Amino acid sequence: MEERLQKILSAAGAASRRKAEEYITQGRVRVNGRVASLGDRADPQRDEITLDAQRVTLPQEHVYLMLHKPVGYVTTLSDEKGRRTVSDLVRDCGVRVWPVGRLDLNSEGLLLMTDDGALTHKLIHPSHQVEKEYIVYTRGDGEKALPVLRSPMTLDGQRLHPAKVEVKSGQGEEWTLSVTIHEGKNRQVRRMCAAAGLAVVRLQRIREGKLTLGRLPVGKWRYLTAEEVRVLQEL
Predict the structure, then answer these.
(1) Helix and strand tally (H, E) in the chain?
(2) Taking the model in full, what pTM does it have?
(3) How far apart, in whole angstroms, are the C-alpha atoms of residue 203 and residue 177?
């Protein structure tokens, strides 16, 4: 079946769709030996598609992992600053996979990784607001912060859906909260807490959609079950 070239390149893990468009515009992509143009379509099962003279092929079976990301790892495949990356933790899976979404350097918890470009695009697209739940250990006046966190807030000029905030424990200046959000903006929970007057001491993502971290040890990964993959594809 014919599809747009940028979609094929993304599904093959060669580049994001936006980057693939750049490669096509730069004349780096060929279909059956002919330099491709933006908007061209091809059949990856029938046509020879190359990027910088390297054959682009779709994986026969996609791989889906759940990683318990530790603090101190960046959510990228490589880092220009030489910092440790999440890809270092999943090298033994035998396939090039990338993170779905992100967790900042100082956050930990559930991180999905895959070689399925189409699913990645769906999960991180703004129109698919998948619930994400975090356990947040904070310092500050929790009584004053709760009404702020539970009310509609604005980040980067965008109105957010009200977060679901539950108190796990609260005493004096130390509060542990469960915070569930939908958008997943950069450092969203930390920025929300800061706006409410709370300092985040520790932040752990424990759920994304219906997938939960469970007892997966820090720094370890596991394959998703067939049922978990089905749930993801239905989101």
Answers:
(1) 6, 17
(2) 0.75
(3) 10
Q: Catalytic positions, please? A: 104
pLDDT digits (tens, 9 = 90+) for 105-137: 999 999 999 998 888 888 887 666 789 999 999
Tell me whether strands 108-114 and 199-208 are parallel, antiparallel or unpaired: parallel
Angle between helix 188-195 and helix 142-150 axes, rounded to 10 deg: 120
Q: Contact at 8 Å (CB) between 17 and 121?
A: yes
The pLDDT tens digits for 5-35 are: 998 998 787 888 889 999 999 999 999 999 9
Give the relative orientation of helices 117-124 and 226-234 as an angle to the nearest 10 degrees: 50
The vertex-67 CA angle with 63 and 71, nearest 5°, equals 150
State the DSSP H helix or E strand holding residue 222, giving kind and residue range, or none if neither.
strand 221-223
Kindly provide the residue ranges of all beta strands, DSSP E only, lying in 36-80, ordered along the sequence: 41-42, 49-51, 54-55, 64-69
Query: CB neighbours of 82 closer than 8 A, spacing ≥ 6?
Result: none
